[in-house]
Amino acid sequence: MPVHYDREHFIPIRVSDLVEFLVMGTGAKQNNVKPLPTNEASLFREFAKRLELHFHSELLPKLQQIKDAYAPFDPDADTQLIKVHDNESRAQDLDKLFDRTRQLLAKANYREIPRLEVMQLLEGQSHWGLQLDVAWDVFERIEVFYRGDRIKVASYRPWWKLFLKEEVVVPEFQRLVLLIKLKPHRRLGKGTDTDSVLLKMFKSLPKPDIDMVLPGTKIKLTKWDMGMIFSPLISGFAILAYKILADVIGFQDIFALGVGVALSWSLAAAFAGWGYKSWISYSNRKTQYSLKLTQSLYFQNIDNNAGVFFRLLDEAEEQEIREALLAYYHLWKNALEGLDAEALDDLIEKDLENRLGIKVDFEIHDALEKLVRLNLVRQENGRFYAIPLSEAVDRLRKMPLVVSESPEQRVNSLRSE
Asked: Which of 201, 220, 239 is the last residue of a domain?
């Protein structure tokens, strides 16, 4: 089975669009896929709807679990906690929250970026010629996740090229999620909430700009900036002082002394002007950076805190449905001969690429596990066979729409917590 290291598991198609894509046989103009007959199209749409209801019901308890885990750490909560958490239980609750969030992100096809790799991404100056300093010790815990690693072309105007427009290739993350627990630190100020856990989700964030959205980051004046700003000033005043001192010690006449001082002041003013110009250039870059930061937080931030969980659960649910629909559809269309996992995986990936231009690394084993568990697919001698569509619809009709823990299971889980 081929492994596509340059592809991701995420299938970027809305479920409703995917259903119509499969029913109507749409996609590339030159393809041999025909629309389903009217009766089969109606059945398949019902199959998709009932499959959607099933996965929604199945993930509903996970939503409650993660809401309960986040409640003690939610900075936006307007409800009061009744249970008192001591330091030990709070630490355990924090571990549980991070574990469950990590599992949810994996379900939604996000990948974790180790801290060392994040630090390597942030090395060097930004595109605005600024050195940013990230204080990693402000974080009690921080985890970074992404989905969608892509390249885009951006334009900017570097000062060292006289602000002429230049295009650069910038690697970016299509989605970026930050999971952060802060601790008291001088960079954060006295009013910063260090008891809560912060979740931030961003879209289309350039990799070198991750430090822009991290708390405790500040702009650092580099040695080059210091040299460009202060060296001309120091040089100018040094020349002025030297000229005045030399003229006074040499006992020159008043006229000569005045001319020398005037020339020295002119030279000092020229140096000071250059230093001021360097300072203005640096200030402009800081302003440009601040503007970009504001735009990133306003336009690229797409959710925060508890809202991130709801979005991730929705993405995880849609991904489960997409995988199951694609796997069942192609097995159903090849019901007589059946397909092994490798052939089915290859068929789905090629169909999406040929008809929609979408390249994915389809999670075939995850999709087949779901279908086998629901008794919608059977396995014989290494090959998989879909049950007839009408039978699949009847089977889903009879399944309960709400899957939750029994009272005994709930009591046991509460005791374990």
From this structure: 220
Does residue 324 share a domain with residue 348?
Answer: yes
Measured CA angle at 113 (ends 108, 118), to 5 deg: 145
Q: CA 27 to CA 354: how far, in whole Å?
A: 8
**Are residues 116 and 216 located together in one domain of the fold?**
yes
Tell whether the torsion through CA atoms of 361, 364, 370 and 375 is positive or negative. positive
Task: Please count the structural domains in the chain.
Answer: 3
Cβ count within 10 A of residue 155: 10
Range of the domain at 171: 108-220
Query: Do 321 and 400 fall within a single domain?
Result: yes
Q: How far is 149 from 345, CA to CA, in rounded Å? A: 22
- If asked whether residues 336 and 350 sit together in one domain, one would say yes
Tell me the HSE value of 149 on the side-chain side, using a 13 A CA sphere: 12
- Count CB-CB contacts under 10 A for residue 247: 19
pLDDT in tens, 51-91: 999 999 988 888 889 999 999 999 998 888 887 777 788 89
Assigned domain for 334 exists = yes
- Judged against a pLDDT cut of 80, whether residue 373 lies above it is answered with yes
What pTM was estimated for this model as a whole?
0.76
* CB contact at 8 A, 108 and 319: yes
**Of 90-99, 101-110, 252-261, 296-305, the least confident:** 252-261
